[in-house]
Amino acid sequence: MSGTSGEESEEQRIEREARQKAEADEAARAQFPPPPPPMTQQNFVQYMQMLEERQRVTLEQQNRFFQELLQQNRVERHENQGVTLADFQNTKPISFAYAPEPMDAEDWLMDTERKLNTVGCNDLEKVRYATHLLCGPAASWWDNIVAVYPAEKVFTWEEFKRKFRESNVPESIVELKRREFESLEQKDNAILTYVREFSKLSRYAVEEVNTEDKKKKRFLRGLSPQFKVQLRMMRATEFQELVDAAITLEDDFKQLQEEKRKKAKYEPKKESAGVSRAVHALTGPENGDEARQREVPVPVPYLFRSCSAPPYAEMPWRPVLSR
């Protein structure tokens, strides 16, 4: 009895094997899920859109991570050794000697400051690297500035900008340029020449062209009358649209003038009707030039009577064609 109780009966064995097979089948199904149902075209499009969105999010996360890492490295390097001259020169800064126009000097200053900020220069590095770009007359000017102050004087970036503008963008010149813009007119110049002068001088009078409407009105005011009336009727919404229309109108006007010139070149000149009839009446079919060569002066009586003059006073001599 006890011997048989320790042995597995046939029925128990069958149950055990069935249970093991069921567990194995369940594990297999869990490891290898059944294939999804066939994908429709709409589901496929949605699936591809989902993949693209995931890729976009992943790329944004990667770019953000690398930018933060790069910025962290820059900060650490800046704290350790600062920005080197080579770092600044990688931005391809422009040297400065002198500027023919005040706004050219202002452009150089703004461009240099933007590049100094790009590489993360501190205040002292900005002055050091900006003055490194000065050459010729500008370098001599800065040397004279430095010589006036004690050797231990440290210039800030704001001080450098103020002194640079005082020397290269003086208020007196800016005021003269502003007045020149106020009196700017096209006159006999081409539209493109007027546009170039308008763009150059308008920088000295920003308050007069700081909106599209102000800019258009000022541009129209300086145009020649032959273009002004038609362009005002056009009602352009943007300044560039007005400029394009003015250039096109000028080209049409030139073509019209050229056509008139060509037509006048091949058409015979017409004499006035009164002169033509007088010559024909007095000379008959003769050539008018020949008739004019035979002009002789004859006296002509006045048609009124004066109390202190003879019945017929003589009029000054005038030419009359002889028969």
TrEMBL record:
It comes from the Eukaryota. Residues 1-41, 260-295 are annotated as: Disordered. Residues 129-224 form the Retrotransposon gag domain. InterPro entries: Retrotrans_gag_dom (IPR005162). Residues 11-28, 260-272 have a biased composition (Basic and acidic residues). This is Retrotransposon gag domain-containing protein.
